[in-house]
Each structure stands twice: as C-alpha cells, then as structure tokens.
Amino acid sequence: MPCHTDPMGLMRMDLEHPIINLSLLIHFTVCHSTVLFLEQAVVAFHGVEAVAGSLVADEGSVVGGNMIISIASGKGGTGKTTIAVNLALSLPKGAVQFIDCDVEEPNSHLFLTPTIRQVTSMGIPVPRIDESRCTYCGKCAQVCEYHAIAVILKNVLVIDELCHGCGACSYLCPEKAIFEVEREIGIIQTGSSNGISFVNGVLNVGEPMASPLIRKVKERIQRDKVVILDAPPGTACPVIETVKGSDFCLLVTEPTPFGVNDLELAVGMLEKLNIPKGVVVNKSDMGDREVWNYCDSKNIPILMEIPMDRKIAESYSKGIPFVIEDPSYIPRFEDLFEKIKNSIIGKSPEKE
C-alpha cells in the first residue's frame, strides 16, 4: 500500500481488491490531528462499516518536527514560562517555534528578546443592524447563545464585548437586516530569536475574551517544527483553547498544597481532552511529597525536577534564561524532550 504524507491520499489509493473483507495494515505518515479524519475517510469507502487499528508514530518524523508541546499549569507562578523558554533554547537552532498563547499577559519576549518583523491586527466579526430592513422580530436575540443582542421595543442593542463572532444572528435573520463589521481585539506579533521562530498575541486592554485571539495565534503554527505553546495559567477557556490539539502537555507544578490542588484540576482537564501529559516539579526540594504521591496514584510520569536554586532566581530577575547562564542544565532539558518524544511515539517515559 502506498504511504502518503497527506491524509487525502486515502482517496487516491489504488486497490486491486475491495477493501471490505480484507485485513489490511496500512502505513501512513500523518500530520498532527489527522487521526479522526483518517478514520472518517476510511469509513467513507463504499461497504466499510467500521475501522479498527492503532496509530504508531514514526520516530524519525517526531525528531524532524511535526510535534506540538503545550506547557501549562493549574495556577500562575509555577515557572511555566521559565520551563517553556529554557526548553526551546535547549533544542537545535532552526527546529523550534515558540508561541506565547498567554495573550492577556505575554511575557516570554522578556526572556527571548525576539526581533519582531510583523505586527498584525486581529479582530472578530460583530453584528450591525440595518434599521431600514429590521422588523424587530427578536430572532437575532433568540439565537444568540451569549446574550450579545437584545431587542427592546423598536431598538436593537448589540453588546460587542459579549459577541463571540459566530455569525448565527446574521445567518438566521429572516429579513437579512444584519451585516458584520470587524472589531479589533488585539494584535499578533511574529519574529525570531536566536534561531527560534517566535509568535505571540497581545489582547487589547479591557477585552474579556482571549480565546478568539489564541485561535488566530495558533493559525501561525509551523507544522515542520517542534512547536512549544506557552499556555495561560489555570484551566479556563483560554487554556483549553491553547492545549487542545497538542501532541503532549507538560504540566509545571510546585510541591505545595495549592500546587497539588491546581495540578489535579489541570490533569482533569487534560483527561477530558485526551491529551498525553507529564509533570515538571519546580522548586522540588521544598514543601512535601504530595505531588509525587498524587502523580503515582494517577500513573503520571514526573519527567523533570528542578531544585530551589538562587542562581536560577537571579537569572530570572535579570530576564536571562538560566540555560544561558548555566549551560549544565541543557542536557537535562534535552533529556526532558527525549522523554516527551518517546511518550508521543508510544514508549513509556522513565520517572525521575
């Protein structure tokens, strides 16, 4: 059987026999997030009732790129951006894309100091009313799930900040009295830093919704690179928007009661999204052992431990990634990457 890098190659397979009644092993090299599409595409063949099988990633393809690693935490201040930045700097130059998805408070640029080459305004479509055609029937308000439109007597009130830009109101308006205009919610900056492709989003002050801008930021993902997504803290919508579609999520925590509690929330979120995960324990020589006990109980590998180190804190306060001031940490981050890669291709990572 042919091996395609494009899942649409399924539609071009030359079969000498009907696929039904055959037990076939088909080897595909697929890009990220095509597994469900492949299953749907195979089922689409005439006579196919079900698909059974498994996906095994080719180790060489993972090494060459085509991998998305999100780095998240259940709470702020655990060292998430520190881990993301130092991991990116420890990998081969030219092979990494760093995307800061914490659009409400992006700070990775303080450490990577990228050269910004392009700034793009980003917005979402919001409705406007053609009063000459509107009959004030209220249909638009009924279909808006986010209560961004209210019809009061002969007035239509549009609350731009609540609008998610779904377009349902304009599509379902019986009088076609609604048109849309673009409303800026933020900017996207692209550039590079020391051989690392860099992207971040900056949400406008006062904007209540970060997820639409995060979606736009992720459209800049370069599929031929190892992509590191620096997620916002917590487990709310912006975090979910960031980590969904990742091949692996690295959770950064600390050995404190708050750290354990918020780690549990983050793990629950990833379990719902069915995303493979591992843990980095920052300031690992402080606090108690509850993080380790929890990870053991959930069979979650702890892939790296970083002790409380004054030199790391001093580097951070100066805006200098600690792998630059102390290159002895680079092999540890390389080992962390190998463990993530092995987890993605189906090997069990060893616990530290």
Would you mind describing this structure in some detail?
The protein has 352 residues and is of the alpha/beta class. It has three domains: 1-56, no CATH class; 63-122 and 186-343, 3-Layer(aba) Sandwich (Rossmann fold); 131-176, Alpha-Beta Plaits (2-Layer Sandwich). The protein is built from 13 helices and eleven strands. Strand 10, helix 10 and strand 11 form a beta-alpha-beta unit. Helix 3 (80-90) crosses helix 13 and helix 7 (211-218) runs parallel beside helix 8. Residues 1-46 and 53-64 have low confidence and may be disordered.
Topology:
Layout: H1 35-43, H2 59-63, E1 67-72, H3 80-90, E2 96-100, H4 109-112, E3 115-129, H5 139-143, E4 149-152, E5 155-158, H6 168-172, E6 178-193, E7 196-203, H7 211-218, E8 226-230, H8 237-243, E9 248-253, H9 257-273, E10 277-282, H10 290-298, E11 302-306, H11 310-317, H12 322-325, H13 330-344
Parallel strand pairs: 1-8, 1-9, 2-7, 2-8, 9-10, 10-11
Antiparallel strand pairs: 3-6, 4-5, 6-7
Helix pairs in contact: 3-13, 7-8
Any key phrases for this structure?
disordered N terminus; alpha/beta; Rossmann fold; Alpha-Beta Plaits; 23% strand; single chain; two-stranded antiparallel sheet
